[in-house]
């Protein structure tokens, strides 16, 4: 199995990166081109698409919707670059990249709300070193859109004058999420949304999920690979999602909307805890063990600062996880009301939440399509408000009450 086998629905993008990894030459910095994985041609439409599609450059930007596999593709490309003599990924290099311990790999990511400037400065400094064992030193920046402008400017300086054997791979939902000056210095490859069939096939082959569960998970996740895997392998996650949709369908008045908003927030909290609690426990035990503190033993005063720093990081991660959980709920509600309007327009074959088709039909009979569109607008507004730091409970309440008034 080569490093590209675990990717799905991105054949054009894989071909671009595989060809680039196979070529030893590096394009001159400051002359990037933007390539669409949908078409396999430069965005500028230049005729030498084949040449551009196989060239190597010092900085890349992988864009695509959430769940399209941006990070997976970035690390597959990193593995190919760090593998001696093969663009298919050497076994030992792949294990080190998977463990994020390869000496020539730097990963810049955050489990908080933004990427800290200190982390970017450290990565930029390390990017100046020559590779120790491979052809390149590779820096993968996950969620590059989570940098504020001041932090992005630090990265910009590194992209303007990169060392000859350093490769930057940035990931973001879209090019518009980054500064224009950064966009001008990277080669952009845009990913498409994988099909439901592609995601289901991946779940069956990689995770051993049965066909029916894989298809349902891929469909309900709307081809978001990570969420599809979670729904396929975690019965509690599937139950929480169904409860979310049923809570929205059961609203009959303002008081019910307020109660439903509280319940949705609780569901998001439960989902976030399910993701973080186990990891936090293992992480804390590992740190204590590395510090020589036995289980059950009190932490010596001299080590409490390190434990406090760990706890602060975990709190930031929990905050982001909760926000992500709320956003997932709003995405699920968007799929629900999309289904309602599809039923209202006589397009039942395109319904996402097929297991709730009877309830969706009932909801469609209580209002006009214009009211359903207004509900979808209210959900979109709630997402914007939460992104702007409006209290999630207030945003959810306003969204649900507004939807009721329009139905």
TrEMBL record:
First-tier enzyme category under EC: transferase
Annotated Pfam families = DNA_pol3_delta2
Q: Which GO terms describe its molecular function?
A: DNA-directed DNA polymerase activity
- Keyword hit for Nucleotidyltransferase: yes
Query: Which superkingdom?
Result: Bacteria
Question: Could you confirm whether the keyword Transferase appears in this record?
Answer: yes
Region described as Disordered: spans on this chain: 24-63
Q: Which UniProt keywords apply?
A: Nucleotidyltransferase, Transferase
The biological process GO terms on file are: DNA-templated DNA replication
Instruction: Write down the InterPro entries for this protein, in alphabetical order.
Output: DNA_Rep/Repair_Clamp_Loader (IPR050238), P-loop_NTPase (IPR027417)
Q: What is its EC number?
A: 2.7.7.7
Query: According to the UniProt entry, which residue ranges have a biased composition of type Polar residues?
Result: 31-60
Protein name, UniProt field: DNA polymerase III subunit delta
């Amino acid at each position: 199995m080569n490093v590209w086998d675990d990717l799905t629905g991105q054949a054009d993008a894989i071909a671009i990166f595989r060809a680039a990894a196979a070529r030893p030459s590096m394009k001159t910095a400051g002359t990037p081109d933007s390539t669409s994985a949908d078409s396999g041609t430069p965005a500028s439409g230049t005729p030498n698409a084949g040449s551009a599609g196989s060239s190597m450059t010092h900085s890349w930007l992988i864009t695509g919707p959430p769940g399209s596999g941006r990070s997976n593709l970035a690390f597959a490309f990193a593995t190919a670059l760090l593998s001696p003599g093969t663009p298919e990924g050497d076994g030992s290099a792949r294990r080190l990249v998977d463990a994020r311990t390869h000496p020539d790999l730097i990963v810049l990511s955050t489990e908080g709300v933004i990427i800290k400037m200190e982390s970017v400065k450290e990565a930029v400094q390390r990017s100046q070193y020559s590779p120790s064992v491979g052809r390149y030193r590779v820096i993968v920046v996950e969620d590059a859109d989570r940098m504020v402008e001041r932090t992005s400017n630090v990265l910009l300086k590194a992209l303007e004058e990169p060392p000859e054997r350093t490769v930057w791979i940035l990931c973001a939902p879209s090019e518009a999420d980054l500064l224009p000056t950064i966009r001008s210095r990277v080669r952009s490859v845009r990913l498409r949304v994988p099909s439901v069939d592609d995601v289901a096939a991946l779940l069956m082959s990689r995770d051993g999920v049965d066909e029916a569960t894989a298809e349902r998970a891929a469909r309900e996740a709307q081809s978001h690979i990570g969420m599809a895997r979670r729904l396929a392998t975690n019965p509690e996650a599937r139950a929480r999602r169904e409860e979310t949709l049923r809570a929205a369908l059961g609203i009959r008045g303002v008081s019910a909307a307020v109660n439903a908003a509280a319940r949705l927030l609780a569901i998001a909290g439960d989902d976030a805890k399910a993701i973080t609690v186990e990891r936090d426990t293992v992480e804390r035990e590992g740190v204590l063990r590395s510090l020589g503190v036995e289980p059950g033993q009190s932490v010596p005063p001299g080590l409490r600062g390190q434990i406090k720093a760990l706890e602060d990081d975990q709190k930031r991660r929990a905050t982001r996880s909760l926000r992500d959980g709320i956003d997932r709920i709003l995405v699920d509600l968007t799929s629900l009301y999309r289904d309602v309007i599809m039923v209202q327009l006589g397009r039942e074959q395109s319904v996402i939440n097929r297991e709730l088709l009877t309830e969706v039909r009932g909801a469609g009979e209580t209002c006009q399509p214009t009211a359903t569109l207004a509900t979808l607008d209210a959900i979109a507004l709630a997402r914007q408000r939460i992104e702007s730091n409006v209290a999630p409970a207030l945003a959810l309440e306003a969204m649900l009450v507004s939807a009721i008034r329009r139905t």
